Amino acid sequence: MGEVRVLALSRRSSARPFAEYLGEILAAEGLLCVERSDRLDDLECYSAVVAYAELSEGEWEALKAYVEGGGRLVFIRPPPSRAELFGLRPLGARLSDVRPAPKYLRVDSSRLLGGLADRAVQVPSDGDLYEVVDGEVVARISLSLRGEGAYPAIVVRRVGDGLAAAYTYDLVEAVVTLRQGRRELAGVDADGSGVVKPNDMFIGLLDPRLRWVPQADVHMRTLSRLLERVLGPSKPLPRLWYFPEGSECVVVMTGDSDVMTEEDLKRLLSILSEYGAHYTLYVRAEEHGVVPSGSVGELRTRGLSLGPHTFPGFAPSPEEARRAVSEQVRRHCEAYGGGLTHRGHCTVWVGWVEMAKILEECGVKMDLSYYPYRYFQCGYLNGSGLPMRFIDERGEMVDVYEQSTHWADDVALVDKTFVDPYDLSELIEDAVRTIEESRRLYHTALTFCIHPVNMRPDVLNSAVWLRAVLSYCRSEGIPVLSADEWLEFNERRRRVRAVSYSVSSSELRLVLEAEEPVKGVAVAFPVRGSSVASVAVDGGEASYAVKELLGSEYLVVVLDISRRAAIRVGLRRLTDRRTAPH
Ligand SMILES: [Zn+2]
Prior knowledge:
This protein is an alpha/beta fold. The chain has three domains: 2-179 and 220-240, Rossmann fold (3-Layer(aba) Sandwich); 249-490, TIM Barrel (Alpha-Beta Barrel), CATH 3.20.20.370; 495-579, Diphtheria toxin, receptor-binding domain (Immunoglobulin-like, Sandwich). The protein is 25% helix and 28% strand. It has twelve helices and 31 strands. Strands 3-2-4-5-12-11-10-7-8 form a nine-stranded mixed sheet, sandwiched between helices. Strands 1-24-25-31-27-28 form a six-stranded antiparallel sheet. It binds zinc ion.
């Protein structure tokens, strides 16, 4: 048996201010057996290295020798002076020198991400222009959605007994920018609505044609799939799947309390119990009287959790926002015993991530204020359906998950966005289509905001929409979670780590450890090129499924971990070595 360990090397520098975020990407992708470091030591212990750092001459020599000796390297934006290792010749220019912007990444699906074949995604970061001398182009950067003017974006080259792969663009910065918006628009009312909101930071960034493509997630998945690919079928890298019980997607159901009454709360609870669905209600101070503080436990059992819905005024300074938000979160916690997820009333935002920092100080763990508004009726505003922590301008992580809201009744059904509002039947059809697409292709936590007050038949009648979505999810077996459940699952998933992982030609042995017990976490092994003979967890036979996900075949094992769990997979290799690796 041989051990499989991956080194993730990142170092912050002026050219790579968001180096820390590489770890966030790998954690969100759920990759196990990855060790993060800012040092390039003991290379011989690692099956693969992901690097995002400026290196010394000596370190480059060590990496070159490592690859020649059979090591697998994925380098994110190596300097043009080191292009030769990756089979590239610099053209002496950068991506930012080329007009027009924006640029698009197009992945060759037969080589990396099946299913996402014709989906181009934007590249809002810089890169270097090359021509390929030797090696395989896995993805290209083009100057239009249709694909004109292509430069290599991801390349893989065989070097000695190893493989050297490179991203020619800054993948990490691309994901940060797609998720958090344009730094230069922080605090700017770019859409002229009179209020600074998260959607302002995406004006002039987002290609509206791609609003239903989780672009940041696609970028991240090229990295996890590339790692699997360079490791090859003999070292299948396990990952923790994104969703509980191995579901292909989830729906996160929420709403805001704005001017709701006790009648509205009753209607909401009755719909939730009818469908067995869960929902997080964000409560303003004004509605504390409507939602009795003694009822939290009972509401929980009926599927409803509560979070603060703060409002610091329409144009607060950072100090005003800090004072108002912390006071309102404090009052919420006093009334309801806690509030770990949050959405701002009118989604007022401060700075690039200043509001996230304020929420972190208040003990909030997840924010859902990235929300549709002007010029953006619905969709993946931040290019993502996954929760990831914020990073600030200086490259420090903020311990608050950014989970975008994708569908909102007060935007989709109201004329706020300079496009015609939906009628209810179109809205139902489109929402179901996006859930179906999430399950089949994008694997996201599609998040809804449906306000109790808007559910009234004489307001927006959005209860009809809520029922249709819940009914669809129930019939398709798609979990509908509250934001709090979604947060809790992610917190626990993030605390699972691999203690050891060893592989032979006929067996995989993975030992996992969890800081806290975690239920229904799914481990996925890429197994294309093999057939699964047996799966055991802690010595007992375990059920499993082999699924087509992210354009590859994965063995998915769902398990509860109380402290430790040992998974043992028996494999039979399929003979034709050329069929792998995909
Ligand atoms: Zn509100």
